[in-house]
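U., I forgot to send this yesterday:
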Amino acid sequence: MTPLAKLRILSILKWVPSNIVENHLGSSKSRFWPTGAFHVAQKPSAALLDYLHSTRSIQFLDAENMSKNSPHFLEKLLKRVENEEDIGRSIARLLRYHPINEFEPFFESLGMKPSEYVPLLPRDLMFLSDDDLLLENYQLLCNYGIARSNIGKIYKEAKEVFQYDYGVLSSKLQAYEELKLSQSTIIKFIVSSPYLLVGNVRVEFVQVLEELKNFGMEISWIEGHLLEGTTYNWSQMFGLLCLFRKMGCSEEQLAGLIAKHPGLLFEGSGDRTLSLIGFLLKFGSTMDQIHMMFLQFPQIQVGKFVLNLRQCFLFLNEIDMEITEIGKIVRSHALLLGSCTLKKTNSLLANLNVGKKRLCKIVQENPQELKNWVLGNRVKPFPTSGEDLKSRIEKSKFLLSLGFVENSDKMKAAFKVFRGKGDELQERFDCIVKAGLKQKDVSEMVKVSPQILNQTKDVIQMKMDFLYVNHHPSGPQVWQDLKKICCSEK
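Result:
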């Protein structure tokens, strides 16, 4: 087969979902396939079907499912085919003389990716018929009504189910039926929590169902909150319900809370809620305070609430608020913090036109201000305070001393480049002058490289000591060289 022909067929296999042939054999063919492509892509699938059913005696429905829902495996076969004239016949010949590992298309047809099933492949088996217990339990799940595409999830999370002796799996399914659960309900619970089939009937699972029934929730309500592809930890969910009671929730309060905010229980099997409780306890909140917060919980996903809370904590930390003050705000305004999706700290500092110290004071005096700084809101700058005005005057005075012209474009640009208060900039400047350089030379240096004065005095002093300015005979020469470099850049 030519590279171009191979590429054409491989692209067809990847372009169309693995089950599209099964779902659209009728009039939908022309809707999804270009002219002739449908029949071209069918050839390798048909050859595999014929091999699995006719040669290997695999039941037709299973063989068909494997041949139509294993595109990665078919891709591997196509790469080994050399005859471009008759793809189907070439693959049939390949399969006749080179038996395949049947577990690969089998696992892929159950909804598993190669990266998931390769580690699960039996080391000493190639043929499905050699693992009669696997096939027995697989057939039982299929006959019970579980979709083949969901059986892969069960295999990944509860592999031991497929090695049960004859009759064991049936007895486990029957045990759940004795809880007066319908077959469709049992299927939903098993797919969402495959480990329910391991061991005896899970006590915690039954307890959660009983608790929710007592709260007035129907089984259909519970099913409606189980997300496809998500695995649920019923033991953790039951533990969370017990924790709510320890907080002081009455049965009526707990029932109302779960009915209004089912995500508290179902998001991550309650781990988002447990994370929230742990966060608040870490900042000193009491169980009574946490209890009252949950009774007023807003209409927001728990995971989003926790994320907002953590982002607000990071914001308060980034504006250098003392940890004790942060704790006070977390304890007294947890609902506010969890409801606010704040803008980035740097963006707020720039848009509000304030420094960290003043911003800390504003938040401490009125935490409700945080509501005005959320994403989507237009942030207005705070009016200049007396302290800010004094700082601007001192900074302007310092820049004029460097030789900038008042109200010039260069001076306006310098205001943005030089960070810090006027007295701080002057102190850093003087620190360099005292090292032995002339004031005129230092002025030229900092005008060329203003970032020099954007460092603290301690950092500047440490760097000068490192260059041996005061302790080494060649120190002054190093500074002269530095000065020449800076001036040459200008």
